[in-house]
Amino acid sequence: MKIKAIQTDLDGTIFNHDQTFSIKTIEALKLLKNKNYTLILNSGRVVQGLLKVLEKFNIKDCFDYLIGANGAEFYDIKNNIFKSISMLEIETIKDIYYKYKNEDFSLCVYDEIVYTNKITNFLNQKFRLRGMEVVEIDFDKINKKYPKVIAIFSNDKFDYVHQLLNNDNSNVYDAFMSSEVIAEFVAKGTNKLTGLDYLISNKIINYDYSEILSFGDSYNDKEMLKGTIGVSIGKNNDAVLSDCKYSTEKCEEDGFYNFIMKNVIKNG
Questions:
Q1: Domain check: are 77 and 201 in the same one?
Q2: What is the pTM assigned to this prediction?
Q3: What would you report as the CA-atom Rg of the chain, rounded to the nearest whole angstrom?
Q4: 173 and 108 within one domain
């Protein structure tokens, strides 16, 4: 492999489910940075949230660029440049709300605070683990654009919600599962690969897709894994395995570190 850039998802890929980085993961990130690889963090979290995580663990300098909200946001760390690539219009957010408000899940938009139509214990647990405040609001009063709307539900509703989204043929937004308990709505044509497209088309990075190694573990990683050299986090991960050329161990088993050391650092 001739690799020039490393792109990775955050949660469940390099960030453990207990909201920590392993010592080995941090070691791998620093080794890659010292060897002058371009590092891109490409996550479903918004850029503000990504920065908080990286600053908390003092690894912000490991990364060159952040792609947030599943391809809707871009941030150049070195030059402190933020760009909204795509946003949901206010009326689109309200249309999503009206379509799904009576379903048994919570709809949310967020920046530093999570705003939802329905607070549940499950919702609180998900976001408080990330240190985020949850506030119940009237979606009719939303007066600004957001990069996405998310739906939070218990994992026993996965099949039902998945079927709902399969039948949603909107012309202005895309709806998809991003985990077993989260569905997302983003502006039409927005995904993690289109976020990477923004860097390449604007010549922020001058690499071909075949020179970019990507790591991911969930449904919203599929496009970026298929469009680059994809590595599945989890050797039996049905969510992304078919879209990847390679696979490695799970996040908690230091899969990212293991693959980087064996296939990039050793050969770099």
A1: yes
A2: 0.93
A3: 18
A4: yes
Q: What range does the domain containing 257 cover?
A: 5-85+191-265
3-class SS letters over the chain: CCCCEEEECCECCCECCCCCCCHHHHHHHHHHHHCCCEEEEECCCCHHHHHHHHHHCCCHHHCCEEEEHHHCEEEECCCCEEEECCCECHHHHHHHHHHHCCCCCEEEEECCEEEECCCCHHHHHHHHCCCCEEEECCHHHCCCCECEEEEECCHHHHHHHHHHHHCCCCCCEEEEECCCCEEEEEECCCCHHHHHHHHHHCCCCCCCHHHEEEEECCHHHHHHHHHCEEEEECCCCCCCHHHCCEEECCHHHCHHHHHHHHHHHCCC
In whole angstroms, what is the distance from residue 112 CA to residue 68 CA?
Answer: 13
Instruction: Output the average pLDDT for the chain.
Output: 94
Q: What is the mean pLDDT of residues 156-184?
A: 93
Convert the pLDDT of each residue in 67-79 to its tens digit.
Answer: 999 999 999 999 9
